[in-house]
Amino acid sequence: MASSLTKDSATPGTPGSEKTFFGHPRGLATLFMTEMWERFSYYGMRALLPLYLVAPGGLALSAGAATAIYSVYVSLVYLLAMPGGWFGDRVWGPRRTVAVAGAVIMLGHLTLALPSSGTFYAGLGLVAIGSGLLKANISTMVGHLYKGPDDPRRDGGFTVFYMGINLGAFAAPLIIGTIGESVDWHLGFALAALGMGLGLVQFLLGSRHLDAHSSVVPKPLSAAEKSSTLRKAALWAGIAVVAYAALGLSGHYTLNWVLVPLTLLGVIIPVMVLVRIKRDKELDRAEQSKMSAYIWFFVAAAVFWMIYDQGGSTLSIFANASADNTVLGWEFPVSWYQSVNPVLIMALAPVFAWFWLALNRRGKEPSTIVKFSSGLVLVGASFFLFLAPLSIAEGGHKAAALWLVAIYFTQTVGELLLSPVGLSVTTKMAPAKYASQMMGVWFLAVTAGDATTGLLSIAGVDLNRPGIVAMEASLAVVAGIAVWMYRNKVKALMGDVR
Description:
Blueprint: E1 5-7, E2 19-21, E3 24-25, H1 27-54, H2 63-79, H3 81-90, H4 94-113, H5 117-144, H6 154-182, H7 185-206, H8 223-250, H9 256-278, H10 285-308, H11 314-322, E4 323-324, E5 326-327, E6 330-331, H12 340-361, H13 368-394, E7 399-400, H14 401-429, H15 438-458, H16 466-485, H17 487-494
Parallel strand pairs: 4-7
Antiparallel strand pairs: 1-2, 2-3, 5-6
Helix pairs in contact: 1-2, 1-5, 1-6, 1-7, 2-5, 2-9, 2-15, 3-4, 3-5, 4-5, 4-7, 6-7, 6-12, 9-15, 10-13, 10-14, 10-15, 10-16, 10-17, 12-14, 13-14, 13-16, 14-15
């Protein structure tokens, strides 16, 4: 990346004479590389996870159990983004929180690399905790590099930053997935640890280029708040230790004693957060109205992510068992399917940006609601498309790899319609009191969707059955049509937000 660093020709010491990263503050290079390596480790491990869980040389679990574990893990990552942001705001500050998060993630991957099923779940927990700590805080530091929301480089900076996410996500399955599947599962997990280690070193060496605000704790806890928080944390930790020790000693412990509470929390907490904000009497009438509209978007998004994130579990497990994973006679690792989405994002995102701008100039750009509902319909269509390879497999044949690529393509187009819109309406419709928390609320839609998938799997629902796939597809399409049909009501609730 050194070649992309340029130095303006102005006199040293004058504004604009410092080194830049594609015309952006030098600190963006540090955050870009840190996020790229963190996503490399995260998506590499995630590509291996469901395959390792069902593999005879792995944990040899059923497809249902593997999907439940995968879904609970992903929901936890997004659920923990809110307390992760809280740590950055109240305890350590963003910079220290990200450094600690990187170390926790690396330790988690190293724990996964140990050839022991006993330590495997502890490793998953550590990666989830570290990812939650890092997710909100590293984006906050990108914002700190710019002079407020009106800095003309700000949006471009976030675009460059998100390219790092997709670069890491694209490369990870090709490298970590290949080594994990073809050589040794635990070596693959170790490569994920190496990736996070490189990201952490990059962050520590380059942190001097970050804005000074990144080291500041915006709203530090008072002594009384620290004491109260520690007491509550110790109490709940003590209850958990005693409960699980009793279950273990009595011989009644099973994995579901962990999975079921976590999936229930993944559904209950998002509902509780939305209810708490909606019932806050300090919000004025306009803010209350916008929150009523936002709930429509939130519920619809949860349905979207419930289906979309099965691309890493249900579809991956299907591909492993029932797809012909070859191109022109050359067989490729199943984990490579997880590189399809990020490469499509990198290819299509600029096209979508240009297309919306061109339509906007003609006054024909679709509204937020139309884009959102279209994304839902497309993710539903992807699962209607999934019925074809399922039917082929039921006939005793292997489904062609292109069927799965077509499903991922349809989901990616849906993501490009829904995800940027969801992020935008979240920031625009956030009540002033909850402005800094609402991005975490948006992530809770992912938590709710994945937790629902986890609950279905724990309940014994076979998510690879055509009837279940058709039901999920229909749910998404109906949700998309409902959002569109009630668009005038939702627009009225949105007030001045468009």
